[in-house]
Amino acid sequence: MGDFYRAHLAAGDLEGIDALIAALAEAGLDVKALFVASLKNDAVAAWLAQMMDSAPPNIILNATFFSARREGEGRSV
Fold this sequence. Notes:
Layout: E1 2-4, H1 6-11, H2 15-26, E2 33-35, H3 42-54, E3 61-63
Parallel strand pairs: 1-2, 1-3
């Protein structure tokens, strides 16, 4: 499971993300790439938690390049 920065999606600049997904899939991983608007949004965090509960990932790659830590909490989803 991976997520990426929305600027990549907005700019149509997904070649790097697509290449990473293809390389991981070629290596035998079942890749699910997820776009989220904000990991700090409660609705997004709930949806992402539900996704992870329904298909627990072995590896999480975060390509957002910034902290997803929520205020007042020890960890994000």
